[in-house]
Amino acid sequence: MKAAIFYFTMSGNTELAAKEVAEATGAPLVRLHAEPPYTVDDIDWTHPDARCTREHKDHSLLPRVKPFGVDISSLDTVFIGFPIWWHEEPAIIRSFLTTYHDQLKAEVLRF
């Protein structure tokens, strides 16, 4: 099985969880970054004009995913880790799934 762990984190908590999965599976870690990168002000969910708030309210606002140099189509298993913002995935995860959907061999289900 060829696998990789893709994750997005701002506070570091998701990275800790991703590292635990990496230890258990032996799969490499791939940190996802937005272009342009999120700043501390961008993720201030209490501010109505913060980038994360705008992306939450308008799902058509999708940040670009910074290239990460992994051929997803060669993977059998893809683990995706992310924080929960407003009871859903951050926009960068929607971007990742939208951008790389055709390269994923497995069906992607959101629940």
Task: Give a quick precis of the structure.
The protein is α/β, with parallel strands linked by helices and 111 residues long. The protein is built from 3 helices and 5 strands. Strands 2-1-5 form a 3-stranded parallel beta sheet, with helices on one face. It has a two-stranded antiparallel ribbon with strand order 3-4.
Backbone structural class: alpha/beta
**Count of discrete domains:** 1
Our count of helices gives 3
- Oligomeric category: single chain
Question: Could you describe the 3D structure shown?
Answer:
This protein is an alpha/beta fold and 111 residues long. It has a three-stranded parallel sheet with strand order 2-1-5, with helices on one face. Strands 3-4 form a two-stranded antiparallel ribbon. It has three helices and five strands, in the order βαββαββα. It has helices at 13-25, 51-57, 91-100, and strands at 3-7, 29-31, 34-35, 64-65, 77-81. It has one domain: 3-Layer(aba) Sandwich (Rossmann fold), CATH 3.40.50.
Indicate the topology:
Elements: E1 3-7, H1 13-25, E2 29-31, E3 34-35, H2 51-57, E4 64-65, E5 77-81, H3 91-100
Parallel strand pairs: 1-2, 1-5
Antiparallel strand pairs: 3-4
What are the key terms here?
single chain, 111 residues, alpha/beta, Rossmann fold, three-stranded parallel sheet, 27% helix
